[in-house]
Amino acid sequence: MSKPKKSPNVPQLSKQEKRRVEQERQKQKTRILVISSIAVVVIIFVGLFMLASKDAAKNVSTGEPVEFNYSELPRIGNEDAPVKLVEFGDFKCPACSQFAGSMKPKIVQDFVNEGKAALYFVNMAFVGPDSETASLAALSVYHQNKDEFWKFYDAVYAQQGDESDEWATEDFLISLAEKEKLAIDYDLLRKDIQEKTYADELKKDIQLATDAGVTTTPSLYINGVKTAEPFDIEAITSEINAAAKAVEAK
Question: Which of 144, 200, 209, 235 qualifies as a cystine partner to 214, CB 3.0-4.6 A?
């Protein structure tokens, strides 16, 4: 009868070493799970971004003018003006401040005051949390006294702080309105900011920007068509004149 073979000597791991090995396995599994989860989230985000970009690009590429309900927007100029300019802006956007300081005065002088065009404004709020505060304040001013809106618009942009700082606070905006001696109720302005009275209207403005394919501020539309050069007064002049002729030809 043959004798059973002896098993070769296999080194046995201690309990501590086994625990360490098991911990390493668990860490590896966790790493794989985390990386996989991040990858899935990234893929979903990229997919949604590409879909949104595609939809926006589709809206722009059709060449169809964007439909605006002009009666709901802050306006400077005659509502019957043949050319209607719509600016999308964020009160914390540095480029918007430049537009307000350099382009708006020229547009008002050359076209709005001459009855050739009217300028409208759509609030956007994406630069910082106080972008929303500034927009809510502006909407409160607009609904209290439409004629005072553009004074507030000019004052906020003229006193604009650094975009990385949260400067457009409730107190700052109310103090600014008082300094400008706006013909409004300052207590109501504070209440509207605190209670976010016009939050739904702001959301509607932001949705309008999304639907129009707006991705940067300032963006300027001339009779529903976006101009590629919001800081080129010659290009804007040419487009306004062309838009006016198109209206006359109808």
Answer: 209
Write out the two tokens for 69.
């309900």
Q: Please state which of the ranges 34-38, 145-149, 169-173, 199-203 shows the lowest mean pLDDT.
A: 34-38
Q: Report the share of the chain in percent with pLDDT over 90.
A: 74
For residue 6 the two structure tokens come to 């002896």
Q: Kindly tell me if the per-residue pLDDT of 241 is higher than 60.
A: yes
Q: Which of 183, 221, 139, 111 is nearest to 156 (CA)?
A: 139
- HSE, side-chain direction, 13 A CA sphere, residue 225: 16
CB-based contacts of 116, cutoff 8 Å, min separation 6: 81, 82, 83, 110, 240, 244
**Global confidence as pTM:** 0.75
Burial bucket for residue 201 (CB in 10 Å: 0-12, 13-18, 19+): middle
What pLDDT is attached to residue 250? 83
One-letter amino acid at 136 equals: L
User: Which single residue is written with the structure tokens 């309900």?
Assistant: 69
Residue 220: phi and psi, rounded to 5, are -125, 130
Name beta bridge partners: 119.
76, 85
User: Among candidates 149, 189, 195, 147, which has minimal Cα distance to 172?
Assistant: 189
Q: Which of 92, 164, 154 is nearest to 119 (CA)?
A: 154
Strand partners, 142: none
Query: Mean pLDDT over residues 142-152, rounded?
Result: 97
Sign of CA dihedral 228, 215, 46, 58: negative
